[in-house]
Amino acid sequence: MTEWITNTMVSLGYLGIGLLMFLENLFPPIPSELIMPLAGYTVSQGKMEMIPAILAGIIGTILGAFPWYYAGKFVGEERLRQLADKYGKWITVSGADIDKANNWFTRYGGVAVFLCRLVPGVRTIISLPAGLNDMPLIPFLIYSTIGTALWVSFLTGAGYLLGEHYDLVDEYLGPVSKIVLLSLVIWFGLWILRRNMRKNAE
């Protein structure tokens, strides 16, 4: 995987970054945690510029969100869940993943789109419930772009600072991302609990 990502980026440059990030959104096993740090390392070598590299990553990610968004909009929740359970093993997406992302979106709407763009594993799938719930395209793009810009900039900057050890981002971010996800779940759970207690008190 690493060799293929490297060859694609070396041969296609900024277009390669955009293409890889587009594919990362369609096929979650392709890790953005490896693509953008490699781009940052390439920038540190003077072979690319930082801003165009980040922009390429953002554009590729946003373009990759459209297929999921429109799948949710036109295919429907029940059919998507059936397809995910039947074929999702090829892209590591299950019906349960769709339910989880949909629950997040139902509770938090646009904020969920923004936050989930910062959480590996959930960041790709959040486009589905946005489509399922008929979220208007412009707000979807705004929240997605802001979250994506932060994520892509962080990964690219980390790769730039780490230099030839850019692959450490992927190695260490996996456990960290699980901690972040757990923290968000706990925080949201406490928020719901307080809200319910307030309603009962009223």
UniProtKB/TrEMBL annotation:
<dbReference type="Pfam" id="PF09335">
    <property type="entry name" value="VTT_dom"/>
</dbReference>
<dbReference type="InterPro" id="IPR051311">
    <property type="entry name" value="DedA_domain"/>
</dbReference>
<keyword id="KW-1133">Transmembrane helix</keyword>
<keyword id="KW-0472">Membrane</keyword>
<comment type="similarity">
    <text>Belongs to the DedA family.</text>
</comment>
<feature type="transmembrane region" description="Helical">
    <location>
        <begin position="50"/>
        <end position="71"/>
    </location>
</feature>
<protein>
    <submittedName>
        <fullName>Alkaline phosphatase-like protein</fullName>
    </submittedName>
</protein>
<dbReference type="InterPro" id="IPR032816">
    <property type="entry name" value="VTT_dom"/>
</dbReference>
<dbReference type="GO" id="GO:0005886">
    <property type="term" value="C:plasma membrane"/>
</dbReference>
<feature type="domain" description="VTT">
    <location>
        <begin position="30"/>
        <end position="160"/>
    </location>
</feature>
<feature type="transmembrane region" description="Helical">
    <location>
        <begin position="140"/>
        <end position="163"/>
    </location>
</feature>
<keyword id="KW-1003">Cell membrane</keyword>
<keyword id="KW-0812">Transmembrane</keyword>
<feature type="transmembrane region" description="Helical">
    <location>
        <begin position="175"/>
        <end position="193"/>
    </location>
</feature>
<feature type="transmembrane region" description="Helical">
    <location>
        <begin position="12"/>
        <end position="30"/>
    </location>
</feature>
